[in-house]
Amino acid sequence: MSDVALSDNQARQNQPLDSIWHNGKEYRKGYTTGSCATAAAKVAALMVLRQQVIDQISIVTPSGITLSLNVEQPLIEGQQATAAIRKDGGDDVDATHGMLIFARVTLTEQREITLCGGEGVGRVTRKGIGLPVGSSAINRTPRQTIEAAVREVIGPLRGATIEIFAPEGEERAKKTYNGRLGILGGISIIGTTGIVTPMSEESWKRSLALELEMKRAAGEDRVILVPGNHGERFVRDHLGLDSQRVVTMSNFVGYMLQETVRLGFRQVLLVGHPGKLVKVAAGIFHTHSHIADGRMETLVAHLALMGAPHALLVEVNQCDTTEAAMELIAEQGWQGVYTRIAERIGERIAEMMRFSVNPPQCDAILFSFDNQVLGSSRPLDQILEALR
């Protein structure tokens, strides 16, 4: 039987998207925008050649998994055909989940295959993400799989132009990091394996590291790492530093610091609320609560080393939130602990980077939710001057 029209039983056999288990719960895998674009291009090419509508198509992903996917909105117009595949991220729902990824294939006599992005596919406007400025945001692996799938269909003697488009792409892209990476006007066609693994942090970490790469490619050798949006606003509005130097690190402190070493940054500043950064003072470089906590223990240890009264140590230890502990610390006048913690963060980072040949100068600034500087690893004016 053809790889196009498959029985339900065969479809199940050719779509072995097994689940994974995380914290006692089962999660379903999905497939990437790159897999959708590849399948859409392949079926569009087949429809042109056969001059018949096809409702299902199979592809082999770069990871070796065969997917059998339903085709939506198939249309044949002479030597041109259009088809769409609906993105399914499994249980790892993201901004592109459920949207249609289209391919339009037109046969030519030039024997070459050309590929471009159309409506809703972003365009690269800055260096540093591995694609030429001005090109469509179709990453290398999907580009290769799309062209290979069409070549397999049309053979060596024909050529084709392929346009990948996504009508919802521009709106959906507002919920992604594309704008910060300099990808404007739509989504990216991505995926190195073709399969989305739920609960995997790798794609998230990689998207954050791409922003570092982009800034380094632009010639920047100083960077400010923040856990999230609050940190970015504080840097811009209260430290007076250039927000273009800010990169979000989320919970991946250690990973992003390692990336700054790899990319050759000269100076790195961590800016954040003690609720996140106090963990780094304890040597915890992944700050999500499911990895480790230790916030109160770290505060208690440093307060004790400063000679704080036992009653305060007991009260802080019993707090459920960092904010509650900070109120007690402020009431009893022990705010100096934040400078001590910031200094310890610097020491911990230096320990982590001790085998690096050229480690960057790393500093830390802690701030409160009412946007006051609580402490810094070096005198604040020295840190800020080095970053201006």
From TrEMBL:
**What EC number(s) is this enzyme filed under?**
2.1.1.195
Q: In which pathway does it act?
A: Cofactor biosynthesis; adenosylcobalamin biosynthesis; cob(II)yrinate a,c-diamide from sirohydrochlorin (anaerobic route): step 6/10
Q: Which Gene3D superfamilies match?
A: CbiD-like
Cross-referenced Pfam families: CbiD (PF01888)
- Gene Ontology molecular functions: methyltransferase activity
Q: Which UniProt keywords apply?
A: Cobalamin biosynthesis, Methyltransferase, S-adenosyl-L-methionine, Transferase
The family database entries (SUPFAM superfamilies) matched by this protein are listed as: CbiD-like
**What domain of life does the UniProt record list for this protein's source?**
Bacteria
One biological process term from GO is: methylation
Task: Give the reactions, separated by semicolons, that this protein catalyses.
Answer: Co-precorrin-5B + S-adenosyl-L-methionine = Co-precorrin-6A + S-adenosyl-L-homocysteine
Keyword S-adenosyl-L-methionine in record: yes
> What InterPro entries does the record tag this protein with?
CbiD, CbiD_sf
Methyltransferase in keyword set: yes
Kind of enzyme, top EC level? transferase
- Which family is this protein grouped under? Belongs to the CbiD family.
**Cross-referenced HAMAP family, in alphabetical order?**
CbiD
Q: Which PANTHER family match?
A: COBALT-PRECORRIN-5B C(1)-METHYLTRANSFERASE
Name recorded for this polypeptide? Cobalt-precorrin-5B C(1)-methyltransferase
Q: Which gene underlies this protein?
A: cbiD
